[in-house]
Design a protein that fits this description.
Blueprint lengths: L1 H10 L3 H68 L5 H7 L1 H10 L11 H8 L9 H21 L6 H8 L2 H9 L6 H13 L3 H36 L1
Helix pairs in contact: 1-2, 2-5, 2-10, 3-4, 3-9, 6-10
């Protein structure tokens, strides 16, 4: 219809009509393109909120895991510090489960693997730009990448504490602890732990383990603060 009117105006050399019809065509194209941009922008905003919600959930889970490990390493250090002066018979008889848990935990060396499924999806699909905040994108990337680089290094102990403990503790007692099949008498456990802490290698091994645990605790607390910062940015946009 519009093309027919333009053709008629051209044949009649009605330049005013031509200009008006041409303006209508241009305006129609502009409005159509603008509407498409608005729809795309609305879709992007909706997608951004979905991803931010997922990132926030994963970050809360990461924060919870880091705080659990903070407690684990704090208890680990305090137990090793107290071990040389513990009255073993009294402590073991009072609660053998609790004592074996603390003893086992004192050799713990692992760190959690932070969740990053949503960030990896955004990265692999080229959708990181959906997160409009440059500060948010940078904070998430640096937190995850720095942690990934540090984790393999910090997850390895620097001394022989774990090996010495497992060499000294009767395998049957450890099996009973792990699978809840009941313990040998408390005297057996007490004697093995006494042999462990009386071993000439114990002081050096315990010192190395305390130093290692302190180093891990430092990094865990650092990443707790950084993860809390990321979560604060996400909750602002959530």
């Amino acid at each position: 219809m519009i093309l027919n009117r333009i053709a008629t105006a051209l044949r009649g050399r009605d330049w005013t009509a031509v200009a008006i019809e041409f303006a209508v065509v241009v305006l129609g194209i502009f409005v159509a393109l603008q509407a498409e941009d608005w729809n795309q922008e609305r879709t992007n905003l909706q997608l951004e909120q979905v991803y931010i919600s997922r990132l926030a959930d994963e970050t809360r889970a990461n924060l919870s895991s880091l705080k659990e490990h903070e407690q684990v390493f704090e208890e680990k250090i305090q137990f090793i510090l107290s071990l040389p002066d513990l009255h073993l018979d009294e402590v073991i008889q009072r609660d053998p489960d609790a004592f074996m848990y603390q003893l086992d935990n004192s050799a713990y060396v692992a760190l959690p693997d932070l969740r990053s499924e949503t960030y990896e999806e955004l990265e692999s699909t080229g959708r990181l730009a959906l997160l409009r905040g440059a500060q948010l994108r940078g904070a998430i990337a640096s937190n995850l990448n720095d942690y990934r680089s540090l984790r393999p290094v910090v997850s390895q102990s620097i001394g022989g504490y774990r090996r010495l403990l497992f060499e000294t503790l009767p395998g049957q007692s450890y099996y009973d602890f792990r699978f809840g099949t009941g313990y040998a008498d408390s005297a057996t456990i007490a004697a093995s732990v006494e042999a462990f802490r009386s071993d000439p290698r114990f002081d050096a091994a315990a010192n190395a383990e305390i130093t290692y645990g302190t180093d891990v605790l430092y990094w865990v607390r650092l990443f707790i603060r950084r993860t809390e910062g990321v979560l604060a940015l996400l909750e602002t946009d959530e």
